[in-house]
Each structure stands twice: as structure tokens, then as C-alpha cells.
Write a structure and sequence with these properties.
mainly beta; four-stranded antiparallel sheet
Length: 374
């Protein structure tokens, strides 16, 4: 969608009979809070953290697991998108009940059933690896050591009990950096999810690759994307064994626009997709997400303009909302409502049981940001 200083914020449209009723969770990049809204766009709860909240999601116990604002003291990762200085777990009243600090943290994380947490980290690769990576544009500022991605499983006390590195499992001939990207990073992992079997679903923006990694062996069980998608985000597992993802379309062939893609991991065929009408009306160069809802609809976060909307399987928009919360983005010297990812939770979700979700608790804010239904 296009930007306009006259663009309404808050709820834009809602078709009650066609939507999956629940509560939507989102944060503003470089903001300091996470917001939970109902279908009418009314704020039902907020969490605040002084170090910022770049992205968060709810745990079954009702706590919020989130990554903080970007790391600013470590030069090797300074100004890289998705950087965070810590993970924090907040209770319903925004008290910190757990934290993990590592300046190499970025983008995504996953709390496991055993209480451990998967984290996505950067790591400087050896020079001999960096020199063999293909692609990217050459610059006099190119580092001697490119950053690779590391998946670690950490215990509650921060001890690493498992590690997987891109430099050990990427292919120098297959995993080629986009020619329009610099050579600071090889993959730029931006998503980390888990299959029902405990394997990893991964996404690497710079090589236009998504895949499923066998946790036990470290090998790719499935790998797909180059010449099909461009700088994608948020691949997730569907009950039918397919993968749903947000194909940003950035640096892709032809006109730039985004789409949502469902791909069969056996045939590699795209079985469903959603694009704007006309296609350029739906586009986010970076960030963004897609969540398949229990009724078959899809919740989409068009991240750069802060637009969140729900589409039916036959591609009708049945709910639409614009993030009303802006934060200063130093990289552009302006305010932005950009939203990394969103989640919709049904009213029976364990995290919401027994919680006070009365929007009257936020009556002043709701008066500003939920003016009505279009």
C-alpha cells in the first residue's frame, strides 16, 4: 500500500461473519511496548519495557517472550536489521521474569516444550569461509569476516546445549548472496520455527532460501526458494505439511510487489497465493509475516507500512487495521509504524485464560485509535 499523511490509523474494516474472532498482538519497531487488540480494534492490554520491544509473542502461561531494541555497542552488528541486545520474558504486569543477553541476538526465537529456548545469533565466520562466499556487491568497506547465522538451544540459565551453523551446512555454489546486497552477512536469517517433529524451519533473506533442517543431523531435509521468491520472511508449518510464507518480492525480477505463498514441500509447487489488486498495492520491502488461522483465513502483516489484515481463502479482505503507534527510526530520521510480525490468538488460547481483557481499561487510548468500523 502507499503511504499518506492522511491515512487513517486503527481499524479500517471488519466483516464479523467472515473473520476469525480473536485478539491480535503487535509491536512497533524501535517502540517500547506490545499491544493486544480485539476485533473492533480496541486495546485490551499492553506490555511495556524500557529497553524496547522489537517483536514478541505470548507463551501458554500468559507471559510475553520478546526481544528488546537493537544492540548499539557492538560494532560488528551495529545498524543491522533485526538486531537485539536481549530476550526478556514479561509477566502480565510487564515485570521481567527471565532474560538472556547476547549482543549477537537477532530476529527470532522459539520457546521449546522442555523449557529451553531456541535463539538465532550472528557469528563472524573464519576468513577462509568468508572469501569463498559468492555474490553480493564488492565495496571497500567489505569486512574480512562475514557474519554467518547460528541456531542455539539454551537452557533457562543461558547454557548452550545445541548449536547449528550456516557455515557448516550452506553450499558455496547454491547459497549465493543477492547481487544487490553487501557482503556483511551470508544468509541474514530472519525466521526460526519448529515442525511437529522438532526440526527447524528457517529463512535466509539474502539467498532467497527457506528450508527445513533436521535437528539431529543438521542437514537440510527440504530447501527451496531461489528464482521463486525474493527476500522472504516467516515460513511456518501448516497442518497439511505445506509451508506458508511472506514473499516480500524485494530485489526480485520484474515489478516489485509482495505476495503470500503456500508451497507443497514434496512437489515444490505453489498451491495457494495472495497478492494485491493491483499487485503494487501490496508491498513491504522488509519484515512482515503470514499466519494461517483455524478457519482457513490468513492474517497478514504488511510490515513496512504497519498494515495488518485478514484475508479469506478466496482472497477477500475481511479485517484490516493500521498500526497507530509510531516510533523514531534513526536510520531514516523519521517516525515509523513498521511492524515486524503479528499474531492472532483465539479467545480460548491458554495465554488469555482468566485475563482481564476489558478495553475500558484503556479507554483513553481507544478513543484515539479505534474510531469505528469501515
Amino acid at each position: 500500500m502507499g503511504w499518506s499523511i492522511h491515512q487513517p490509523v486503527g481499524l479500517i474494516h471488519y466483516s464479523p461473519s467472515l473473520s476469525y474472532r480473536g485478539f491480535t498482538l503487535f509491536s512497533t519497531n524501535r517502540g517500547n511496548h506490545t499491544t493486544l487488540i480485539d476485533m473492533e480494534g480496541r486495546i485490551c492490554h499492553q506490555w511495556h519495557h524500557d529497553e524496547g520491544i522489537g517483536y514478541s509473542y505470548l507463551l501458554p502461561n500468559g507471559n510475553l517472550l520478546c526481544r528488546t531494541g537493537p544492540e548499539t555497542e557492538t560494532d560488528i552488528v551495529k545498524d543491522l536489521g533485526g538486531s537485539s541486545s536481549a530476550l526478556v520474558e514479561l509477566d502480565w504486569e510487564s515485570n521481567v521474569v527471565w532474560s538472556y543477553r547476547n549482543p549477537m541476538l537477532h530476529h527470532d526465537f522459539e520457546r521449546l516444550p522442555n523449557g529451553n529456548t531456541l535463539v538465532l545469533l550472528w557469528d563472524a565466520m573464519p576468513k577462509e569461509f568468508s572469501s569463498r562466499v559468492k555474490g553480493g556487491y564488492v565495496s571497500e568497506d567489505d569486512p574480512d569476516q562475514m557474519l554467518g547465522d547460528v541456531i542455539q538451544e539454551i537452557t533457562p540459565d543461558g547454557t548452550s546445549v545445541y548449536q547449528w551453523r550456516t557455515e557448516d551446512n550452506f553450499d558455496f555454489d547454491e547459497d549465493v548472496v543477492c547481487p544487490l546486497e553487501n557482503r556483511r552477512e551470508w544468509g541474514h536469517g530472519n525466521s526460526l520455527n519448529v515442525t511437529p517433529d522438532g526440526d527447524f524451519i528457517v529463512s535466509y533473506r539474502r539467498t532467497n532460501t527457506v528450508g527445513i533442517v533436521d535437528k539431529a543431523t543438521g542437514a537440510f531435509k527440504w530447501k527451496w526458494g531461489p528464482n521463486e521468491i525474493a527476500h522472504q520472511h516467516h515460513p511456518t508449518w501448516l497442518d497439511n505439511g505445506h509451508i506458508l510464507l511472506f514473499d516480500n518480492g524485494a530485489h526480485g525480477r520484474g515489478n516489485g510487489f509482495s505476495r503470500i505463498v503456500e508451497v507443497d514441500t514434496v512437489s515444490n509447487e505453489i498451491t495457494w497465493q495472495f497478492a494485491g489488486s493491483p499487485p503494487p498495492s501490496f508491498y513491504s520491502f522488509n519484515i512482515s509475516s503470514a499466519q494461517r488461522l483455524p478457519n482457513g483465513n490468513t492474517l497478514i502483516c504488511e510490515g513496512a507500512p504497519g498494515r495488518i489484515f485478514e484475508v479469506s481463502y478466496n482472497k477477500n479482505i475481511v479485517w484490516e487495521y493500521i498500526n497507530p503507534f509510531f516510533a523514531l527510526d534513526p536510520r531514516s530520521n523519521g517516525n515509523s509504524n513498521a511492524t515486524f510480525r503479528t499474531h492472532r490468538y483465539g479467545p480460548d488460547h491458554p495465554a488469555l485464560r482468566g485475563k482481564n481483557l476489558d478495553p475500558k481499561n484503556y479507554e483513553a487510548l481507544n478513543h484515539l485509535y479505534a474510531p469505528g468500523v469501515g
